From TrEMBL:
Keywords linked to the UniProt accession: ATP-binding, Cell cycle, Cell division, Cell shape, Cell wall biogenesis/degradation, Cytoplasm, Ligase, Nucleotide-binding, Peptidoglycan synthesis
Domain Mur ligase central, first and last residues per copy: 93-278
Name recorded for this polypeptide: UDP-N-acetylmuramoyl-tripeptide--D-alanyl-D-alanine ligase
Pathway in which this enzyme or protein is active: Cell wall biogenesis; peptidoglycan biosynthesis
Biological function: Involved in cell wall formation. Catalyzes the final step in the synthesis of UDP-N-acetylmuramoyl-pentapeptide, the precursor of murein.
SUPFAM superfamilies per record: MurD-like peptide ligases, catalytic domain, MurD-like peptide ligases, peptide-binding domain, MurE/MurF N-terminal domain
PANTHER family membership: UDP-N-ACETYLMURAMOYL-TRIPEPTIDE--D-ALANYL-D-ALANINE LIGASE
Source organism (scientific name): Brumimicrobium glaciale
Domain Mur ligase C-terminal: 302-417
Catalytic activity: D-alanyl-D-alanine + UDP-N-acetyl-alpha-D-muramoyl-L-alanyl-gamma-D-glutamyl-meso-2,6-diaminopimelate + ATP = UDP-N-acetyl-alpha-D-muramoyl-L-alanyl-gamma-D-glutamyl-meso-2,6-diaminopimeloyl-D-alanyl-D-alanine + ADP + phosphate + H(+)
NCBIfam families registered for this protein in UniProt: murF
Length: 428
């Protein structure tokens, strides 16, 4: 297989999509539930790919198109082989909530001093991680690799590919329970990162305020900590949440002025501290760290503040699970605003306790005395017995809002991506 790895070094890049293929690329034919990349290998070569890797013998000619037993395994082994040719820090980031935002913040901070490769978007799975690693070149000083998981063993699989030298788990909550089977399996999977860093004799960063993470730390691993306690290597304090986050922080050799960010949410405070902790470890100047955090503006429906013709909208509709919904509602309750309302969408992939988690969200919103409405079939099924305003779909919610449009409100949109709450921006 190592001979085939050398094909990669004769190519400009790796591609798995003939629609986006470039001249001299190495095309790797992957298969999915509804597609077979082997069928497109010939087209890839015709479009300019130099070589193609397939796992269907009938399309291999062993001149430009080469057969392997499993194309996905080839991709992963190639990425691991390539990564191991670089003696640089590789920082792995995982967690139930906040991993993408934390990755973006860490990258923003480290870019102030280093040439950094980092995961684009949320390409954080068994395909995205190797594709990111294959972009490593001699100009890079370090890499930041986001790692997602939806079932037991996923993080171990990704750490076996990436061989991280540094790692952080942002938090552990309830998400993708359907795939994991239990909350215990979520903890077991996420902390596979800790085991990998220990085996690689690396460095861990962790939230000193989080007892779950603290109790799972391996004893022999060097650590750097962040949190609100004075004992943390980086300690911080929230100054304001109206609605943008402002805070200050200090380390053993730096005390910051107020950091006035363009990001919403108390829950993002720890993501900021994580980026500071990692930046400080890699000796980025404190003022440069602050500059990076102040300049950072969220995107992709994550903690975004959108001003419309009628309202101000907090758009946080990329993902939702019981932990992130609780944080979002509690944060929203703390924001001082004369008129505010929430629109909460269904939380997906929660398994057999789905109704209970949604009921808890309803009860929390009532306990916080928040006004709002709910969207999705799960919330709608609980509407009558809980006396809430709920709609089966975003379309139905839009129809209602067109007849009762709120004005001069601060509006929180929070729900799973599949619910499509971002469509409500059109009318709000």
């Amino acid at each position: 297989m190592e001979e085939l790895f050398q094909l990669f070094y004769a190519c400009s890049e790796v591609s798995t999509d003939t629609r986006k293929i470039s001249e001299n690329a190495l095309f790797i034919a992957l298969k999915g539930d509804n597609f077979d990349g082997n069928k497109y290998a010939k087209a890839a070569i015709e479009k300019g790919a130099k070589y193609a890797i397939v796992d269907d013998k009938t399309v291999a000619d062993e001149k430009t198109t080469f057969y392997v037993k499993d194309s996905l395994i080839f991709l992963q082994k190639l990425a691991s082989y390539h990564r191991n040719s670089f003696d640089i820090p590789v920082i792995a980031i995982t967690g139930t909530n906040g991993k993408t935002t934390t990755k973006e913040l860490v990258a923003a901070v480290l870019i102030k001093k280093y040439n950094v490769l980092f995961t684009k978007g949320n390409l954080n799975n068994h395909i995205g991680v190797p594709l990111t690693l294959l972009q490593l070149n001699k100009e890079h000083d370090m890499a930041i690799i986001e790692m997602g998981a939806s079932k037991l063993g996923d993080i171990k699989e990704l750490t076996d590919i990436a061989h991280p030298t540094h790692g952080i788990i942002t938090n552990i909550g309830h998400a993708h329970i359907e795939g994991f089977g239990s909350p215990e399996n979520i903890i077991k999977t996420k902390t596979e990162l800790y085991k990998a860093i220990q085996e690689n004799k690396g460095q861990l960063f962790y939230n000193a305020d989080d007892d779950v993470l603290k109790n799972k730390l391996p004893h022999s691993c060097p650590t750097s900590t962040y949190g609100t306690t004075e004992e943390a290597d980086v300690s911080g304090e929230i100054i304001d949440l109206s609605p943008m986050l402002s805070f200050k922080w200090k380390s053993k050799d730096y005390s910051s002025p107020s950091v006035n960010t363009q990001i919403i949410g108390k829950y993002n405070f720890y993501n900021m501290l994580a980026a500071i902790c990692i930046g400080s470890h890699f000796e980025v100047d404190g003022n440069e760290i602050n500059s990076a955090l102040v300049e950072y503006k969220p995107s992709n429906n994550r903690s975004q503040l959108e001003k419309t013709s009628y309202n101000t909208v907090i758009l946080d509709a990329y993902n939702a699970n019981p932990t992130s919904v609780k944080s979002a509602l509690e944060n929203f309750a703390e924001i001082s605003s004369e008129n505010k309302m929430f629109v909460l969408g269904d939380m997906l992939e929660l398994g057999e306790n789905t109704n209970q988690y949604h009921l808890e969200a309803i009860q929390l919103s009532k306990g916080l005395k928040l006004q709002g409405m709910f969207v999705g079939s799960i919330f709608s099924g609980l509407a009558k017995e809980n006396d809430i305003l709920a709609f089966e779909s975003t379309t139905k919610a839009m129809e209602f809002l067109s007849t009762a449009l709120p004005k001069d409100n601060l509006i929180l949109l929070k729900g799973s991506r599949g619910i499509g709450l971002e469509k409500l921006i059109e009318i709000l």
